[in-house]
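sanity check this record:
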Amino acid sequence: MSKTKRKEVVTSMKYVAGMDGGGTKTAVTVADEQGTVVKSFTSGAINYNGQDEENVGASLKEIIAQIGQTCGGIEHCEEIVIGAAGVSNPTVVSRLSSQIRNSGYQGELHITGDHETALYGAHQREYGMILIAGTGSIGLGKNKAGKTHRAGGFGYLIDDEGSGYSIGRDLLAALVQAHDGRIPETVITRLVYEQLQFNSVQEIIGFVYDKRTNKKDIAALAPILSEACAAGDPAALNIAKKNASSLLQLVIPVAENLSLQEDSLAMAGSVLLKNAFIQGMFREKLHGYYPKMQCITPKSDASMGAVLMALRMNQFHNSNPLL
């Protein structure tokens, strides 16, 4: 009696991956074709503004290897979306693409601005508005017709108002102004000295103009503002008010250009999410300008936003209610 061998059909699960390339680390999320997250991890920075070619390449090689292990082989990852800073510079896109390919990934690849992946993640859809106030600041929106508009985000030398860098600079300015009598004494002086472990204005000036001091070092002072505001310090409260007003100015042109005056605004970044005084002042000013606009916290982060973009690009969204 002959036995008939039944042919087994093996189907492979498909995956996508999203990356949020920050200044000091890269957040990575891997999901299957149903949108279920199977792994999230962090790795080294892939930002060319603060890393050299060798370090970026090493980080990407490690990331691609981990994605491959998660997917049972990198060939099962259908699409990778990367949200990164500085992509308006075409060399950044080409360099990242080259490093990804050299790391062994040959599937679909899309590289866009990190603010765009943050917007998608914040609303879990491709339209809406987001205001990001971290080390830098930017406002971004997209309406249902697909029109986009951005405000700010042009770098700390000429822009980034309302950001951590802007606040850090304002705190240092208040310190020197109090030192020479332009404003009354302020608790900011003691708090800055304690954080930097300095004792004089001369040391402050040396720190500020040292070529090794970067924007992140200045922005790292921003959390001081919360403590100074809690103490009722007039200079600190003025700084909070000034920066809250600057953040409102990033929202107005986005809302007006896209007719989103009654839509929701996602607030992101440490300045808005961790400084209750700036957030409160900002909400009050926003409500006075747009009474029907709702402020929300992001529904998911930028790496998940990149995943959602990847799923949409691959037409997996028919079974995913988020897309």
In short: The radius of gyration is 23 Å. Confidence is low (pLDDT under 50) at residues 1-11. The CA atoms of residues 222 and 245 lie 16 Å apart. The first helix runs from residue 53 to 71.
